[in-house]
Amino acid sequence: MRFFLLFVLCLAGLGLSAPGPARAATAPAGSASTLADAATIARLADAPRWQALLHYNPGATLRGVGESYVDDKDFFLAPDGASDAAHELAASIQALAAPDSAARCRYPARYKFIAKHLGWDTRDALAHCTAYQDWRSRMPIGRLVMVFPAAYLNSPSSMFGHTLLRLDASAEPESAYLSRAINFAAQSTTADGSVLYAWRGLAGGYPGRFSVNSYVETIHRYGFIENRDIWEYPLNLDHDELDWLVRHLWELRGVNFDYYFFDENCSFRLLELIHTARPAADLLSGQRIAELPVHTIRTLKRAGLVSGRDYRPSKIHALQHRADRLDANQRRLAQRLVNHTELLDTPAFQRLSPADRHRVAQVAYQALRVKGRKNTRRDETARDSLALLRAVQANPAPDVPPVEPPAPPEDGHGTHLVSLAGGRLDGAAYGEFGFRMTYHDVLDRPQGFPTGAGIEGFDLAVRAYDNGEIKLERLGLVNIRSIVPRGTFFKPVSWFVDGGLEQTPVRDTRQLGLYLHGGPGVSWRVGDVMPYVFAAGRVETVATQEPTVATGVGANAGALWITPHVQWGLSVEQLYFAQHFDRKQARVSANVPVSRNNAIRAQCNYEAWRSSGRTGCQVAFRHYF
Amino acid sequence: MKKILLGAALLGVSVSASAVSPGGDGCGWGNLVFEGKSGLPVHLLATTVNGTSGNKTFGMTSGTNGCDTSGALTYDGKSLLAMNGMLEEVAQDMAVGHGEALTALSVSMGIEPGDRAYFDQVMHQHFADVFPSQDVDAGQVMTHIDSVMQQDARLKVYTS
Hints:
The complex is a heterodimer. Chain A has helices at about 1-15, 30-35, 40-45, 50-55, 85-95, 100-105, 110-120, 130-140, 195-205, 215-225, 240-250, 265-275, 295-300, 315-325, 330-340, 345-350, 355-370, 380-395, and strands at about 145-150, 165-170, 180-185, 205-215, 230-235, 255-260, 310, 415-425, 430-440, 455-465, 470-480, 495-505, 510-525, 530-540, 550-560, 565-575, 580-595, 600-610, 610-625. Chain A is of the alpha+beta class. Chain A has 4 domains: about 20-135, no CATH class; about 145-310, no CATH class; about 325-395, no CATH class; about 415-625, monomeric porin ompg (Porin, Beta Barrel). Chain A has a 12-stranded antiparallel barrel. In chain A, a hairpin with a 2-residue loop joins strand 18 and strand 19. The longest helix of chain A is centred in the middle third of the chain and has 19 residues, at about 355-370. Chain A is flat. Chain B is an all-alpha fold. Chain B has one domain. Chain B is built from 8 helices and 1 strand. Chain B has helices spanning about 1-10, 45-50, 75-80, 85-95, 100-110, 115-125, 125-130, 140-150, and one strand spanning about 50. The termini of chain B are far apart. The chains are: A alpha+beta, B mainly alpha. Chain A: Pfam families: DUF7840 (PF25222), DUF7843 (PF25225), Lnb_N (PF13387).
């Protein structure tokens, strides 16, 4: 019911925000046939730009090929405009012909297309469109930038990420803070529960819309509150191309699209929008089961649109960068200053050089602010913040060099995986075929991904044993691992959750069981090594095991040793089940990337039900695509 | 509140400007420096499916309360300062002596490129005048900046 109401609201919104529905346009100057002949209409209706302006699916996704993605009948002027580009063109020609036509104000990009091809006089053609002109005069139109906020700390699912566009006032804007952000997002209500929210997001229950707001809000939200690094990719669209895009953006104001998390999501819609600016670019071919932001960046690069790359570190990275430049004593002092600004007046701080005072106070200040942003405003925090800033201001220092950007996300390995492995399990040889739909595990080639963060969806492994048996080894539905080291300033909680089907040790056999496994933990960093400990809980059901559902608790400990050339993993786990059995598992793995998209992974595994255990080892060739 | 925001977002214009700050929760003259958590939901699932819970406009809001999010050409220093989180950043940049937020402020105040480094320097020197206490709000900070500029021969021309 709520949903219905919202829909009504948005229809009302169109009536209020646009200068009257276009179909009510006054006095057409003539029928389309007097303005353009049928052959011209047919030819122009097939033009890539016209198809792009109507958001026709060129075969990029499976639903509705040859029809418009726009799920909003008010967007079309012809009754069958969503599926017949020629009818829509004819209706548009008719509606846009009159010089004082209200439709011109609603469809400035369509007008530009038709006027250009039919040779209409475009002088003052949109002069009567005051709302559009007003909006347009506020839109900077110097440069378009694709923006990709990377994963945020301790939330591997955010690796899938979000993308948005930014419009700058010039090719070298004075301040990106004054630029505009173009977002496409599902319009949901937070009143819906999380599960319903996720389901609708995945299955298409929410309409998606474009919105335009201030880029500084984007920086604040992603960079400061969510602590995500932001990657920015300037595009080489020229002024005329940007004019198409901005005109069309106006046409999309308040227009509903279907929103599907997997394919018709923000990244895909932004590509479509860019497509209207440069229809000749190869942006929408060969699509697209799971459109990920990182694909979008790669697609734009491949099509030759990307002209640069900027990196904007999150507040936490900027803080770490500064803290790394302090010595251990200074770091400890900064840590104590966070909650004890009275130390600013003690010799411990005062005997430092002015430049060191500046650096220590600045680190303390930034740490305090990162913490402060998690809670509501407190008087003591505000007082301490100002005291630290005064110390920063009173003690000048040369600026530290900027944060060195890590490997950019588009240089990471492909998001799908196939693997072929050979191994032995308790003396039986097997070959294994594996396929992983998405995305990255903690031992995969680390470049372009946050260390210690893994998310896998639909992870299949099938084994053929030397006795001819073929068995499903694993069908992981979701496996998320967030191993975040605790540092001087922040003490994050690591966590993992893993669920699906897998071969489970039961007495002296292995049987397919359904399981859910997970828990919280802690991790540290010692050089390149990250040791960790998790408290683990597990629920499982194995057909032949009695009782049917078993629940266990225990612990899981291990370490990651991530270097650019080899990634090592070690883990041991012991679980005690309420059904009077226990299970152990130990595993050591080494992953050796041989190129960006190929790796060798060796792994040995010991698993046991009570005391009856078995050992296996395998070597796999892994190819990402 | 969320629903009202969503309604406003769907309507696409600031028809309910009296009910909601167009710039979002916490946006406005009363914004204090060193603000805490804002109204933005940091939500695992929300992030996963790239949703938004409203508070999105089409860049059409205009500043009745100093919170204009309508973009570069109509920003002035006031509306920028009144935006969530900006005051804190400006404070830090002034303490350090330069920074992106301070540049954005000087650009939006119409300060010529040749005078911006000087503006940064003056603001750095007068940090204590601009931020005399931890409880100043955006309106007060703007007044303080203005009076510092009034007293400076070179920056005086930019004040109204």
